[in-house]
Design a protein that fits this description.
The protein has about 210 residues and is of the alpha/beta class. Helices cover about 55% and strands about 10% of the residues. Strands 2-3-1-4-5 form a five-stranded parallel beta sheet, sandwiched between helices.
Length: about 210
């Protein structure tokens, strides 16, 4: 079984992905980390975030084990990742890695922004997780203050709006809801309630005879 979970930043898709992966014993890939790691590596190496050739080489040779999770979760990493993600050469370099993970024997779960439309359009379960930008901004702000004490809620919301626009308007694999995806709006949901909706979607596919 392949489960594709797409959605916006701080919508809860990452937490839902982790919970589902644990419940159904599926290997999980947070594809956003690939772009964050590429961006962080570029910043450390002094490579411009619009240098397609330089970024492509980083992506081709990417080794996530060399990055600390705390380095990938900063606001700077998130903003840089959104810029890197619009580069077609980077997306192509990372496509095969993601596709190979998705199609491994026994199934897999991936979360990102174009899993159900580009990486695994053949996924058995597709979810799109979203929430209004104010709620997402508040959630993201609470995450960031541990790394960046001076960050403001207003700035976080502003950056989310910019990122949403960039992700949805890029020419190569824009973030979009797959026509057969189940929408989960987490604006007014607890994480447990959101996870339960996701489980219902998976169980509906299992009931039709698909196995994990």
């Amino acid at each position: 079984m392949i489960i594709a979970i797409d959605g916006t930043t701080a919508s809860g898709k990452g937490t839902i992905a982790k919970r589902l992966a644990a419940k159904y014993a599926l290997p999980h890939m947070d594809t956003g980390c690939l772009y964050r790691a590429t961006a962080v590596a570029a910043l450390k190496q002094g490579i411009a975030l619009n240098d397609a050739a330089g970024l492509q080489q980083i992506a081709i040779n990417l080794d996530l084990s060399k990055f600390r999770d705390s380095d990938l979760r900063t606001g700077e990493a998130g903003k840089a990742a959104s810029q890197v993600a619009v580069i077609p050469e980077v997306r192509q370099a990372l496509f095969e890695l993601q596709r190979s993970f998705a199609t491994q024997a026994g199934g897999a779960l991936l979360d990102g922004r174009d899993i159900g439309t580009v990486i695994a359009p053949d996924a058995d379960v597709k979810l799109w997780v979203d929430a209004n930008v104010e709620q997402r901004g508040y959630r993201r702000w609470k995450e960031l203050v541990g790394f960046e004490p001076n960050v403001t809620l207003e700035e976080v919301i502003k950056q989310l709006r910019i990122r949403d626009e960039r992700d949805q308007s890029r020419k190569d694999a824009p973030a979009a809801i797959a026509s057969d995806a189940v929408l989960i709006d987490t604006t007014d949901l607890t994480i447990d309630a959101a996870v339960e909706k996701a489980i219902v979607a998976v169980e509906a596919v299992l009931a039709r005879g698909k196995t994990v």
